[in-house]
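**User:** Here is a favour to ask of a fellow structure person. Please take any protein you like and set down a full record of it. No explanation is needed for now; the record alone will do.

**Assistant:**
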Amino acid sequence: MRRSKQSLRRDCPLPKSPQSTVNARPYLGFLSCGSEEMASDPKVHIFEDVAKHNQTKDCWLIISGKVYDVTPFMDDHPGGDEVLLSATGKDATNDFEDVGHSDSAREMMEKYFIGEIDPSTVPQKRTYIPPQQAPYNPDKTPEFVVKILQFLVPLLILALAFVVRSYTKKD
């Protein structure tokens, strides 16, 4: 149950130390007194903080107004971690719904739920923040070496054949 600003008790004490913040916490710009029902309310995140989590080892997604920390699921996602990384830094609801996830996938999301997003902080037009990955350098991959060898070995064989032929023809 959420309380409105009008229903807040006026005698709600402010916390005196960080340890005493269990029963009093900020909620969307105002302080609410704690109770058992308020303690179960999800944490509210602002968009800028969620957008910072855009790496393979730290990945948060916003789907249907909820924030999910999918870092432990990165290696297990059937579409690969690139799919999840491309959905960071924005409201990924459309990306999620367009794929047509199964009911079991939707149930699996519950264990990654960490809070809700403050809708007033989500920008209307998204500015792209690229995921931080090591840059891909095609010149340093083993496939590049194989391609070079596939080109050079036939040329060396052809050159060797011409040399052998020229020495055998003079005799």
Remarks:
- Confidence is low (pLDDT under 50) at residues 1-39.
- The chain has three domains: 1-41, 42-134, 138-170.
- The CA atoms of residues 65 and 119 lie 7 Å apart.
- Residues 1-41 form one domain.
